[in-house]
Specification:
254 residues, alpha+beta, 2 domains, three-stranded antiparallel sheet, 10 helices, globular, binds adenosine-5'-diphosphate, binds magnesium ion
């Protein structure tokens, strides 16, 4: 399970990205970046953050620790900024907390990761169809001289079509992915070695364990997916099928 904490103070919004995350202090005396359930695309973004961030962690990619954070409604009352107040009011209950990396800066190429780390990150992004890792939007932070991956909310986009089209693991399994604009393209080492490393780590059991970290209340029902267990099974199926079907999307890019 991800740790469960409670917000005690809203510190400041972060306006660099699109979704207006906020820096928040919490009951464990930690400071976190909170991704709100009431932002733009809602709960599915939080689900993608957990699944893809935790897959990254298992691949040895540095990602900040995550927790499930309860946002008490009273916190919105002390917030002067109207846009932030609206977002807080739209986000009662559980949200996603990402450990705040103080003093980190956005990746600018001045401290590239090792060739192996870069290849692992490219592999993850191809596997999960993460379009948000380009020079215009690197979503990599440099902290203590190391590269950390953040912001995986746009990945595994297949779930956005579940309400209208239903789940179809076969469709995602074969979907090609274009890595030509990837921010680490020029520093990545052997991509086929990255694939071998990933396949060895991401067994169906590990994928199921990662999907198991998502709180039940974030797993929205859809046609054919009536309860959280069914939704969980659909995520596992999509990821396992895509991994089995790697030649369809991987050989083209590696
Ligand atoms: N864990 C973190 N520690 C420090 N700064 C962060 C962290 N997560 C995000 N940020 C900062 O906030 C910005 C927006 O966060 P991000 O997760 O990319 O959300 P989005 O792009 O969806 O708005 C990042 O570009 C980065 O500058
Ligand atoms: Mg971002």
């Amino acid at each position: 399970m991800l740790p469960r904490i409670t917000a005690t103070r809203f510190v400041t919004p972060l306006r660099e990205g699109g979704s207006l995350p906020g820096v928040v202090e919490a009951s464990d005396d930690g400071t976190y970046v909170v991704k709100f359930r009431g932002a733009g695309q809602g709960l599915k973004v939080l689900v993608a953050e957990v699944i893809v961030g935790e897959l990254a962690r298992r691949l040895g990619i540095r990602v900040p620790d995550m927790a499930v954070i309860d946002m008490p409604t009273a916190i919105a009352r002390y917030e002067a900024d109207e846009e932030v107040q609206d977002l807080l009011n739209a986000s009662p209950g559980t949200n996603l907390a990402v450990d705040f990396l103080p003093g980190s800066f956005g990746y600018d190429g001045s401290r590239p990761p090792s060739a192996e780390e870069a290849a692992d990150i490219m592999w993850l992004d191809a596997f999960t169809a993460n379009v948000d890792r380009t020079w215009s939007n690197p979503n990599l932070l440099v902290w203590h001289r190391q590269v950390w991956a953040i912001d995986h909310g746009a990945a595994i986009f297949f779930h956005h079509s579940w309400p209208s089209r239903g789940a179809d693991a076969g469709r995602f399994a074969g979907q090609p992915f274009d890595l030509s604009e990837h921010v680490l393209r020029d520093v990545a080492g052997d991509l086929s070695a990255a694939h071998e490393r990933a396949v060895a780590v991401l067994t169906p059991e590990v994928i199921a364990e990662v999907v198991g970290l998502v709180p039940d209340e974030w797993l929205e029902a859809a046609p054919g997916l009536d309860d959280p267990d069914a939704v969980r099974t659909a995520y596992v199926d999509h990821l396992v099928r895509r991994l089995e079907n790697a030649p369809a999307w991987w050989e083209a890019v590696s």
